[in-house]
Amino acid sequence: MLYDALVAPFVDYPFMRRALVGALATALAGGPLGVFLLLRRMSLAGDALSHAILPGVALGYLAAGLSLPAMTLGGLGAGLVVALSSGAVARFSAQREDASLAAFYLVSLALGVALVSLKGSNVDLLHVLFGSALALDDTALYLLAGVATITLAALALFYRALAADTLDPVFLRRVSRFGEFAQYLFLSLVVLNLVAGFQALGTLMAVGLIMLPAAAARLWTQDLTRALLLAGVLGALSAYIGLALSFVAGLPAGPAIILAAGAIYFVSLVLGRAGGLIRNLTPRRHLEG
Amino acid sequence: MRLTRRAVLLALPALAAASARAEAPLPVVATFSILGDFVREVGGEAVEISVIVGPDGDAHVYEPTPADSKKLQRAKLVFVNGLGFEGWLDRLIAASKTKARIVVASEGVAARKLEGEPDPHAWQDVANARRYVENIRDALKAADPVRADVFERRAGAYLQRLDALDAEVRASIARIPEARRRVVSTHDAFGYFAARYGIAFIAPEGVSTEAEASARDIARIVDAAKREKVGAVFLENVVDPRLARAIAADSGVRLGGELYSDALSPPGGPAADYIAMMRHNVEELSSALVP
Amino acid sequence: MGRRLLGAAVTGPGVAAIALENVTLGYDRRPAVHHLSGVIAAGELLAVCGPNGGGKSTLLNGLAGLIAPMGGRIGRGGAAARDFAYLPQAAQLDRAFPISVADFVALGALRRKGIFGRIDQAESDRVANAVAAVGLEGFETRVIGELSGGQLQRALFARLMVEDGGVILLDEPFGAIDAATTDDLLALVAAWRAEGRTVVAALHELDLVRRAFPKTLLLAREAIFWGDTEKALTPGNLAAARAMARAHQADAAFCQRDESEPADAL
Fold this sequence. Notes:
The complex is a heterotrimer. Chain A is mainly alpha-helical. Chain C is 33% helix and 22% strand. In chain C, helix 4 runs antiparallel to helix 5. Chains A and B meet through helix 3, helix 14 and helix 15 of A and helix 8 and helix 9 of B.
């Protein structure tokens, strides 16, 4: 019975295998990014950026019609402009990152809506752009795998710089010439993963697989490296369980995966050894010293 | 002499009034675009038609507006499909307090059953369309006897075209090898077409593509396509072409184009009137199924 | 507490004197340090004292290269500002970040190794020595969020040590910590001096200055006195410093002295 739910669907149906590979790629790269987003207090950035990409998508649409590559590239451009500009504003003015991102994404979204209405039609561009895990073709899979590889390589290479930039950016900027760019590198990785994720999997799944497993992972460990690895693992688990649920119970794939991730999060919230409710609320014997 | 002249003088205003009434087109309402097309063919310039659910609209889930209410008030005749197609109609009629006569276009059609309920898509069988046209003609003649001969003439010409269309459809289907006259479709609007012209439309069980598709839905469509050895898969409701392509790839079955079932396309589109619509559907079926 | 030194000789670039030529530093065109001139000799142990708002932190920010002078120039004898190790007054670090004390202290190596440099055995030893030198043995695996204020300050000192800078700038390093920690850290400062490093520290604890710092700059936007500590911290000088730290002049005109003073002032 368990075999029927957990193994058979992936053995029997190519589209299930493709969905799994795509979702795994997103989860393994997105989880670590999510941990950093959490630590930088940017947990809502993913959602904001999903709106911010609209003018880029609109420009792609105005230039080339309903062409997915054009709209994706446009979205990527807009996302980068918004993310990097808000980062620069936070760095060089008195504004904090959350305020600057809110300002930029709202302006960007309004610009996008205006651009779309220029063409006259009522096409919901974002709906067209956002895909579904069940509809992944080879191009989408290559995109996801490529983005995941780039992200993991960048995270491994620049791990120390990213950690230092999150922990003590003033210190990093003082001791390293790379310090100024660490923030922009990180934001670029986030936008890249979000846009690839939107296009292939839809907003809910892309943002959800980045944030929820990371939030859950933080409840189990205070060690950064372990949190990064655990976030990826929990995300992968969510993808697997969610797809099985979509197959067995007829739930739409994206929400099913996020619900699985959510269930894992709530379990972590209660049982997590590094800040979960049971740990925090039950008195324990204190140590010698 | 004087009597004749007075008679003529007196008759003139009456004649004028009569011909004035004859000049003004009869205001009518049709509930959806296909029905509107029939009424337009039969009525021509003699009727002024308002259509409630326009091209590309979905009458199953339509929400009437106050403007629709006004249309009903002005109308003398309201042409409806019947067979449960317009679930919102009774409320709209009550709200508009119209005094128009309601004409059920599908009167006399042998209705099929779909999951226990009558299947409203009777127009997909051209023979039924003939019945619709006849009903419309008779209603218009009764409402406007002055122009009865216009309606009679126009209806006659249109019915001939419908007969030609029927023969055309049969011939096209005949060209498809019998083994290939099977398709998987997620839309259940082609029951009458299937029964009359001999193409099997198989709907995967329990699949709803109105909302976001689940893995189970996709699997069922793929399974149905493979199991039933269909020639093509038609997915009218699937918005994402990528999903449609994935299904076609996994089932090894060709993906058909778009079929029009419940509404015409806008003018300039491939199904701007009923005859064009039927031709377009047959064309899509042929090109998908003929090897 | 171990007293092992990091090395008899300083490993960074050779320490040179720091020359301040008519330096004006400030924010928003308001000078916080106004026309300061002087030399900090190589290997000197200098305290910078003065009232709040007198420009101590601003001076250190300027020496560390975090702000550019509004007038005059700072000569570092060929070294770059990046080569100066700096402990700011309020550490702007994220205490909730999951990093162990050992890894945190190891960040000090970034300046010398770069972001891709590996932490080799020599570096690990340096980190271990630094942790021991500040009295945090046993805390290596603790997360920094678990440390008390004094312990965090020790960890910051340890990171500073691993930076291994020829010039060390400290801004109010003993702010919120207890006497025992203060003594330990002062001993470290003395050890640095013995290694030939230049140490400049902004302090308001005058007793500590008298105890441990041979030279003092008494700063109240302008130099009140710059020289031996006992001559600097006389009641007269201290009163003058308090008097000079006026509030901002709301309608201050452009500084006239930029035109009148000769360019080669020292």
